[in-house]
Amino acid sequence: MNSTYQPIYDALAEVPYGMVISYGGLAKKAGLFRGARMVGWALSQLPAGSLLPWHRVINHKGMLSIVNPHVHAGHQKELLEAEGVRIIEKDGTFWVENPPWFS
DNA sequence: CGACTGACGGTGC
DNA sequence: TGCACCGCCAGTC
């Protein structure tokens, strides 16, 4: 079921507190090259009650493109701010200022 | 079975 | 340096 996404979840769990990672970087850690889209699908299948830091996953543009039907739009913003990550709201979209990339 | 879409990334212009 | 198009993997129509 989630066998293919297992390495993605494992790599996500390795992301330290207060840091973020891009889809491509996470896919690379999972052993998947250019599998950014797969990561997005994997996270979309992630339940709202998951203990994984899904909120630390952003695109390489630094924008929070996450659209979780189970989680409110500004939820990720609060989670990142709680970790010391500065978030900027731009036209209804949340951006990360000086994103500490975990590579 | 075939084509389009999608929580993206990289390269080209 | 910024914007646009193409490419990859899996899922859905």
Summarize the structure in short:
The chain has 103 residues and is α+β, with helices and mostly antiparallel strands.
**Widest sheet, order of strands:** 1-2
Largest sheet geometry: 2 strands, parallel
Instruction: Output the structural class.
Output: alpha+beta
The counted number of beta strands is 4
As residue ranges, the low-confidence spans are none
Sheet-strand content, in percent, reads: 5-15%
* Share of residues in helices: 25-40%
Q: Which series of helices and strands comes N to C?
A: HEHHEHEE
Q: Please, how many helices?
A: 4
The backbone outline, from C-alpha atoms, is globular
Radius of gyration: 13 Å
How confident is the prediction overall: mean pLDDT?
90
**Termini separation (Å)?**
27 Å
Topology diagram in text:
Layout: H1 6-13, E1 21-22, H2 23-29, H3 36-44, E2 57-58, H4 75-82, E3 87-90, E4 93-96
Parallel strand pairs: 1-2
Antiparallel strand pairs: 3-4
Helix pairs in contact: 2-3
This protein binds a DNA duplex (13 and 13 nucleotides) through residues 4, 22-24, 27, 32-44, 54, 57-61, 64-68.
Q: If you had to describe this structure to a student in words, what would you say it looks like?
A:
- Helix 2 (23-29) crosses helix 3 (36-44).
- 31% of the residues lie in helices and 12% in strands.
- The protein is α+β, with helices and mostly antiparallel strands.
- A two-stranded parallel sheet has the order 1-2. Strands 3-4 form a two-stranded antiparallel ribbon.
- The radius of gyration is 13 Å and the shape is globular.
- It binds a DNA duplex (13 and 13 nucleotides) through helix 2, helix 3 and strand 2.
